[in-house]
Amino acid sequence: MLTLDYNSDTLKNWYKEILEGDERDRRIIRWAALTVMLLSIAGSSFALYRVYNVNPPAPGPMPPISVEEDRKKVEESVELYRTIIATRRDSQRIANDIVRLGRNPLMKMESPKEVALISPEPSVVDLVDLPPIVLVRAVMVIGRNSAAVVDIEGVGEGIVIKKGMSFLGGKGRFISINSKELVFRWNGKNITVPVDL
Fold this sequence. Notes:
Keywords: Membrane, Transmembrane, Transmembrane helix. By secondary structure, the chain is α+β, with helices and mostly antiparallel strands. The chain contains four helices and seven strands; from the N terminus they run ααααβββββββ.
């Protein structure tokens, strides 16, 4: 305790001598401290001035917009979509032929000359008869209750569904939801969608 009091008294005396002392070295210390404080205030003020007065870069000329490239991309996407729809329709026809023939590969099918494998343009009737693409995002099963989050082509994305819900004006209806598959009825046929999460 005595040492602490001695040190604090020594510091107080030294501080008092610096502030009130009239010797030359005490005056030099006071002027040096004052100069350091003024320089630090000036440096801080200049840095603050630079921060608040930063000039944003002048906007340059806008690059020319190329509509032709976007048009080509859109036309390629449309062509790809038409090809996918035509392939889906033809694959459904082939699947129906296989079912109609009793899945016997030795039985005679329709002649390729009579039926084109890929139609250039799908008809409206073909598009209406196709079931929508349904992607399962999540399935929740609690006891007997179950629900799922799905994306339905032509309806929307992230739709929460339960068993018995209908979509697209009643054309489709969900009849089963479990952790392995989701089943909906479309035009009198049950369509199974596997749950791949």
